[in-house]
Amino acid sequence: MEEKKPPRTDRYKSVSLYVVIAVLLGVFIVLQGRKVLFDAPSRALVAPGLTAPNFTLPLLDGKMVSLSDYQGKVVFLNIWATWCGPCREEMPSMQKLYKELQNEDFEILAVSIDILGARAVAPFMKELKLSFPALLNPEGNIKNLYNTIGVPETFIIDKKGIIVQKVIGPRDWASPEAVRYFRSLIQK
Asked: Quick one: 158 and 182 in the same domain?
């Protein structure tokens, strides 16, 4: 017995169906990729060796300050929140570091992302007896600007505005090693 072959038109229909499915799948993938590209928030490239993105935010008293106001100083930029346990843990050592270096070319800028703003930050600063500048960013857009993944995150910025180091998580900023490190940056 002879084996019956399917008519040519049936084979072309099968191949055509696979081609259509492949094209539709390709179009879908391309459109999904474009959606991701267009919907992604714009994020600056933030890494050691690059210029720190500038920002302008209010202090607790409402005065507006910019990172660029501190050009010529080593800046300790800390992104934090009052509800963050590790932030609370490291703040006293930040205060000690601030006191140790307050008469040198050094500044701490602690940017709070608390949505309650000054209502949450002012009592927190008072309770922990913190005197370094606290900036308010209840919208939290500093997180996107600096590509943070959580709090606390600290960026050490040199006198020229270049990020020297990014530190994720709390540290003892008042240790002798830390003070020596900051003094060496100040003296450069």
From this structure: yes
